[in-house]
Amino acid sequence: MALSCGIVGLPNVGKSTLFRALSAAKAEIGNYPFCTIEPNVAVVEVPDPNLERIHAHVETEKVIPAVVQLVDIAGLVAGASEGEGMGNQFLANVRECHAVLHVVRCFGGDRVLREGPVDPVGDAEVVELELAMADLETARRAAERHGKKARTGDADERRAQEVCERAVGLLEAGRPVSDGDWSERDLEVLKPLCLMTLKPMLYVANVGDDDLAGESEACRALAAHAAARGRRWLPFCADLELALREMEPEERAEFAADLGLAESGMDRLLREVYGLLGLQTFYTAGPKEIRAWTIRRGTKAPQAAGVIHSDFEKGFIRAEVHSVDDLEEFGSEAAIRAAGRLRTEGRDYVMQEGDVAHFLVGR
């Protein structure tokens, strides 16, 4: 599935530095407003040790990891929901993304040209208010539109109107639409609206290299803000991660070891994104390719097959499944089969993290 994450925040909080640290793309860096004029887009490979574990036992021509699309979006300013700054473009770009990485400045110093002290909660609230104001206008228009159609007696339109009015009520009360208790039918009504406060959001605290664990007062304040909204956060030193990325592999490993970094910030961030969206990975493995596929948790075998090709879902007959652990234990699929550990699963099988699958399909 094509997963995209929008990187948002106020100008000069380190969004473009974070983007460069996470990707091979070149985002223009500059301490002046709107230094990112068009959204920079990069496709980033998801670090996945299971691919090497599989490759150790399966000869193949190529190994293809799962990917995430990152979108570095122009800095938002107060009044964006009314078109201030680059508001309209900013909001349009956020609406197109599946998840939001909200970068918040949590470091001090005078190297960023912004007035006032470090205020992560105040900064976060400026962005969230603009997203909510834009969503409120969208939800009100949708409620009005469905209301006009409901006057003809259309029950579905009346129900859609009620769903949109509930969204309006949440936003007017200062709450994101994600706070609502929405059924699948409700979400079908809301999905076309691309409401930004309905999207999963992760706070990324951009910290200095003297606070890699995020223990400063600023980080504690942001953590409390995130907890009050039922969201997650993580510390991320964009400057350090960018410096590490630009090093040679051996130098990077040595420097990371000196700092006591067990894993890169990118690994942690992408793992959080997967959790944020309720995603997991399954694999296919053969002589042509070993490949990681991204699905939502709870996906059944036919729908997983459909991620590979839509015709596979339609023609699904059964799946032959084993785990990466099975492959390491027995050394080959043939040995797994001989040991009776290769499972045959039908249409109701729910895919598990780390499954290696072959799908049998018919015409």
Report on this structure:
The chain is α/β, with parallel strands linked by helices and 363 residues long. The chain is 41% helix and 20% strand. It is built from 14 helices and twelve strands. The protein has helices spanning 15-22, 49-55, 87-95, 120-150, 155-172, 184-190, 217-228, 238-245, 249-259, 265-277, 301-308, 310-314, 324-330, 333-338, and strands at residues 4-8, 40-45, 62-64, 67-72, 99-105, 201-206, 232-236, 279-285, 289-296, 316-323, 343-345, 355-361. The protein has a six-stranded mixed β-sheet, with helices on both faces. Helix 7 links the parallel strand 6 (201-206) and strand 7 (232-236). The chain starts with a strand and ends with a strand. Residues 25-37 have low confidence and may be disordered.
Q: From N to C, what is the helix and strand string? A: EHEHEEHEHHHEHEHHHEEHHEHHEE
Adjacency order of strands in the biggest sheet: 2-4-1-5-6-7
Overall shape: it is flat
The total of beta strands comes to: 12
Distance between termini?
Answer: 23 Å
Could you tell me the mean pLDDT? 87
Major sheet:
6 strands, mixed
Strand proportion: 15-25%
Radius of gyration: 23 Å
